[in-house]
Design goal:
The chain is α+β, with helices and mostly antiparallel strands. It has one domain: 4-Layer Sandwich (Double-stranded beta-helix), CATH 3.60.130.10. The protein has an eight-stranded mixed β-sheet with strand order 1-2-3-14-6-16-5-4, covered by helices on one side. It has a three-stranded antiparallel β-sheet with strand order 13-7-15. It has a three-stranded antiparallel β-sheet with strand order 9-8-12. A hairpin with a 2-residue loop joins β4 and β5. The longest helix is centred in the last third of the chain and has 15 residues. This is TauD/TfdA family dioxygenase.
């Protein structure tokens, strides 16, 4: 990837790596993933320099968190648009009049909660999302944490022989078994079909140039070009490997917190350990590109 092909925040995320931040504070949760960002109000005017540094913080930390934020629905959507066109979820319920604003809710009537298993959001799309921006307004008194895992770290921890084996392989990501009937309790009717795509098992991040594992329990059904039993065994190994706590951070939600994660190099899992209490918020998702 040539630096001359980059511009704006993408260029700055690479060229300014390691330099002090000027307009925001960045406090790492772990050495490899996660950082809490301070000094910025996402619902107010955000300067171009602050936005550049938020782009850079996301590239360096994979997932970034903001506390005590107050955004209207329109401000949430506008913040997402600073990173690209917005993605429409193929199945989930959304706020009235705002198809880009996904509803994230679980309460005493729920039979499931969003994101309970490890996954990368909507990886079944041909062009999966760049990232997701979750704004939680109501929290249970205890529990409801979200775990995030670095797929850079998971890839880098593989043996050289396993890296060589996986290089060039592709896998199927299928939304049909995931989304069919998933939101029936929310009054959402099923669509005739759901996305299905083939992606490389190892993808290269378009901004950082780093390599990451790109299979997940949520959507990946098989690796192509090898026998089904071998695919099942390799995927089982990779799932167990990538869920190593050494690759993870854990975020404890408070009301009016925001998490912004990069789906291209991180996976996440939401803990539903708070029933019958209520958790509510909205998610804005930014369109991505075809993985390479």
């Amino acid at each position: 990837m040539s630096l001359s092909a980059l511009s704006g925040p993408r260029y700055k995320a690479i060229t300014e790596a390691g330099l002090p931040y000027e307009t925001i504070t960045v406090e790492k949760l772990t050495p490899i993933i996660g950082a809490e960002i301070g000094g910025v109000a996402l619902g107010g005017p955000v300067s171009n320099r602050q936005m550049d540094e938020i782009h850079r913080a996301l590239a360096e930390n994979l997932v970034i968190f903001f506390r005590d934020q107050h955004m209207t629905q329109e401000q949430h959507l506008e913040f997402g648009r600073q990173f690209g066109p917005l993605h429409l979820h193929p199945a989930a319920p959304h706020e009235p009049g705002h198809p880009e604003l996904m509803i994230i809710k679980a309460d005493e009537k729920s039979v499931r909660a969003n994101g309970e298993g490890w996954h990368s959001d909507v990886s079944c799309d041909v062009e999966p999302p760049l990232g997701s921006i979750l704004y939680i307004k109501e929290c249970p008194p205890h529990g409801g944490d979200t775990l995030f895992a670095s797929m850079y770290a998971a890839y880098e921890a593989l043996s050289d022989r396993m890296k060589a084996y996986l290089d060039g392989l592709r896998a199927v990501h299928d939304g049909e078994p995931v989304y069919r009937g998933m939101f029936a309790n929310d009054g959402v009717a099923d669509k005739p079909s759901y996305p299905r795509a083939e992606h490389p098992v190892i993808r290269t991040h378009p901004v950082t140039g780093r390599r990451a594992l790109y299979v997940n329990r949520g959507f990946t059904t098989r690796i192509l070009g090898i026998p089904p039993d071998e695919s099942e065994g390799i995927l089982r190994y990779l799932y167990e490997h990538m869920e190593n706590p050494l690759f993870q951070c854990r975020f404890r939600w408070q009301p009016n917190s925001v998490a912004f994660w990069d789906n291209r190099c991180a996976q996440h899992r939401a803990m539903w350990d708070y029933w019958p209490h209520r958790r509510y918020g909205n998610r804005v998702t930014v369109k991505g590109e075809r993985p390479v």
